[in-house]
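Reviewer 2 asked us to include a model.

Predict the structure of this chain.
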Amino acid sequence: MKKLFPIVLAVTLLSSCQLYKNYERPADIITDGIYGDMQTAGDNSLGDLRWRDIFTDPKLQALIEKGLQNSDMKNADLRIKEADYALKCAKLAYIPSFYFKPNGTVSQTWDPWNRNDYTASKTYSLPVSMSWQVGSIGSLRNNKKKAEVSREQLRNAKQAIQAQLVASIASMYYNLCMLDEQRLLTKQTEENWGKYLKMQQQLMNAGQSNMAAVASIEATYYSIQTSVVSIDNNIHAFENALATLLGETQFHIDRNSLASFQAPAICSTGLPITILDRRPDVRDAEYKLATAFYDKNIALSSFFPQLNLSATGQFTNLAGGVVNPGVFIGQAIGTLTQPLFENGRIRAQYKISQAELEIASNNFQQAVIKAGNEVNLAMDDIYVARLMQGLIDKQVEALSKALDATQKLYQNTGTNYLNVITAQNSLLTAQMSQISNRMDAITATINLYQALGGGVE
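Predicted model (structure tokens):
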């Protein structure tokens, strides 16, 4: 029997060693090749830049600064404070609890036949009690580690909110810049067709045109006017949405032109491994994995004994009878509870925690793959936008020459003015495509900024 106890103690201690291990990132998480053929050489990437270095427009920067003070960011700070308090509670669990509960009673016996007997018995007690729920082996430590992970998870959530805010504000701002340029071109088109309509009306009055031609041109003219109204409505909608994001009532957004956007000098992916520490949703998946790791340890700790200590010390005049003056009485109790059989509940909970840990590991790997694919897509969009920009620029240049030649031909020979209108429309359509493609390049850059983790602060 004497030899059995050391053996049991040694087995218990060896089994509990894993309860004191910290979470470590799994070695089988794959990052190589997650960017596909869009991985760029070098250690630096867009994810190494601050948002101020990416979005350099001063008016946009002022809007972003204002947006980072909105209610979502304030709530994120409050949630982090809540997590700090929860962590403090988890740390204080190592310390015993003390209670002071003074009490007193007054009692007497009264004899109805002897009215002079009114002597009262007074008792009092001034106890201080201590309780210390040490818990099972490793349970307090793993609960504290879990609280630490929860706090970091909330800090990570704040960064995710910030990255989303910066991206949303920048996207809305440049969409407004795009709509401004589209409106300008549409108004030019409206003006050109207005001139052409007046010319045809004058020709009809002179008997050189007919109502069918005038009505057709008039319909096109009104269609262009509806496009202007639609663009104005879209501008108002974007301003309203941006004001809401900033936590303000609707107001006019002061802005520069679309050309004010300067692509970052560094517009690359960097090493895939860095996405594990930069991208908020990937980090969140890993925090959930760490939480599942400590939950498994907590479930494992249920197999080990639980130790509870309590002590009471009091000054009282009640000790086998009322005595004055009072005396000190002390008492200490320690209990050790070892679960033996709970209908499989403890084992089932441990199996569930193991399954949850495996699920969290799979979700972590999937989050890494998803992030890599988003980086690949954003880089591909940037490449395509740049390629198309060169082609569209050449198209605009060629159509500008065609319009110039058509206008000179009309001035010298008096050919049909419809040729001039057609050339103008072709140029304006190409210029619209040019604006849209510039916006596509900006959107792809914003998407890459998000896909690489939302920059550094």
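The two ends are 63 Å apart (CA to CA). The chain has a mean pLDDT of 80. We have added this to the supplementary material.
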